[in-house]
Known about the structure:
By secondary structure, the protein is α+β, with helices and mostly antiparallel strands. The chain has 4 domains: 6-56 and 74-209, Sandwich (Tumour Suppressor Smad4); 237-306, Phosphorylase Kinase, domain 1 (2-Layer Sandwich); 313-520, Transferase(Phosphotransferase) domain 1 (Transferase(Phosphotransferase), domain 1, Orthogonal Bundle), CATH 1.10.510; 562-690, no CATH class. The protein contains 16 helices and 21 strands. A 6-stranded antiparallel sheet has the order 2-3-1-11-10-8. It has a 5-stranded mixed sheet with strand order 5-4-6-7-9. β20 (616-623) and β21 (629-636) form a beta hairpin. It starts with 5 loop residues before the first helix and ends in a 17-residue tail after the last helix. One of its GO terms (molecular function) is protein serine/threonine kinase activity. Residues 96-146 form the FHA domain. This is non-specific serine/threonine protein kinase. Residues 1-21, 43-78, 533-557 are annotated as: Disordered.
Amino acid sequence: MTSTPRAVTLARELDTKDDEDPNLILIIEAGCDTTEATAMALEHNKDRYIPPEADSDEESEPESRETTPSPKPEIKRTHQLRLTFNKPPKNKGRGFSFGTEGNRCDVLLNTKRGGGQISKVHFYITFDEKGRLLLIDESTCGTAVSYGGWGQELTRHHFKWILLSQNQIRIHLPMNFTLDVVQPKHFFCKKEYQANITSFLNDARDAVLALGGLYVQSSRTSKFPTGSHSPGQQAIYLPRKHLGEGGYGTVCLVTHLSTAKFYAAKELIRGSGLSKEAKLMRDISHKHIVQFVDFTHDPTTQLIMEYLPLGSLHDQHKIDPITLTETRKLLLQGLDALRYLHSLSSPITHRDIKPANILVQGRGANFHIKLSDFGLSKDTPFLKTGCGTLGYTPPEVYRVAKERKMEKDQRKLSTLIYDNKVDVWALGVVVLQYTDDLPYDALALYEQIADAVKDLRRRRPDDPFTVLLDKMLRKSPLTRPSSEDCFQEALKIGYPSDEDTSGSVTPTRHDFEASNEMLASFKVPTQILAGDDRVLGSKRDPSPTRSSGHQNKRPRINHPYYHTVMGMLSDLRLHGALIDNGGNDEYTATSIELICDEFSRQKITHIKVDSVGSHGVTIKAYRANKSGEFVLGHFTSSKPTNSMDLAYELKIQNSEKGSNRASGLSEAASEYSAHYEHRLLNNSYGRLSSGTIKPPPRI
């Protein structure tokens, strides 16, 4: 019987404990009888090298016929290099170095300098400031990193990749030299592993202070990539999942491999209009227009844009119907975007405004939309071609298209045009659709649209919102107001704000600052944003009142936790885990104060909202008098909560144990019930029969 080599025994022990070893950073593997395996086995790498397991010569005792033979453990047939915290790199500021110069490299890949076109220092592996593993190329001939087999042909120079742990990662060097990367999960030692990363980063900073700068790698860039790259440095976007498709192309979710940020990538099925759309979008900058990110041809031609996980207005309406409050915000925000586009030095007409092309960034009190899909847009003031979507296209487009088809006189053809008021009409139809439940099959019938507007005016004769909508849907573009006129009228409907409501007189593509921050904020109620049909106040009385004449309650903005709570609520809305309180600002204000008081009671220093899986959200907090983080609560976008229920849950979940906890539960229940009964008596929250308010849970 031969003894098992010590190295093999060590390999087997480590193999069963990889995911539980906080000292282990990652494993680099190569198959047997390969150039890569020969490189790993070099004397220079002996402190990190683990050879393949050998077949055991031990004879097992014969088993009885009645006994089922136990399956033999799988023998690992790969050569391994293990990067660990207790064997740090030579240059802590740069990370673990790989190449062909022994004096500078932690891992030697060839004994000859520049052998196999591998540079003296070809790449580094280190952590970024968020504790994510990075691979940074420093070579002459370049490196590629593939994720689940995707991306091996995308060679880059002086580039960085985040090694996403959920993917099977392979490093591709010149001459078909490849290395597989295995990242331990660290399920049961995450706290210790994170502590090791923190120590590693601190050592890295200390190691380079004398050099006058930090080598600790940062994955931060500007808000969005610039779209301009040096040769071999163009951004790489890893496809994640299919988001949708239309007649012109598909849209998928992608990850920027140098930042791990998510974006939406549009790829055309046919035609060459993507470059035109990219050219239009490149210089557009407005908070209610989807942001251009990049335009890439490698590996395919794609238009990269910011990603809004809630999807389109059409998608959201199917999940949770758009409320009247949100519809009025939709009108004001849409007009804000259109007047910006129409006021540029080279005016842009969208020409395809519809629910599917309006993306949603937030719902409820933080309702926020962004126009998208500029595939049919034109940067000219006068238009002649017929396009758009049936039902949202105004009468003049069809009239011009029909007359141009019949007209033979070239001089008269030049007069058969329409302008950007087509966008005003289309937005009006979208708003009418959600205001009056206009059936989709009626959208193309102008008489039915006119009838719907007349019916709305008859039911709400004094509603300025309805009056404005009526103007936007005038059949004649000569009497239909411009987007700027509509926007200004919409502003006059609302209450005055402390915030600046005046935009640039001559807006430019680069520096236009969209006015009226109130559009996405519940704290400045305006009549056009209000959730009911009556005028709640007047311009001379900026404070909305209840029917009793008492001023509505607003959250205490000077509360030390106000901005922390508002930031948390905003994050929850973006994750789809928080919904509106039925359009009632007082109810929202009360819940915000409850949460502020709870945070104050717990002496919380800051809050973090993290995604868990595809629908879950976890609220994590940090206390001033305790180290480390703790979980405040778990929520989900499949069953979103409102701010009052959230306040109650946080108060209940985080009450002290024992008698203090019981007291906290009782106090929370009493406080919650009191606010519920107050809403019931004043009837200012809405119809209880609709199920909008839930009674306080039993304790």
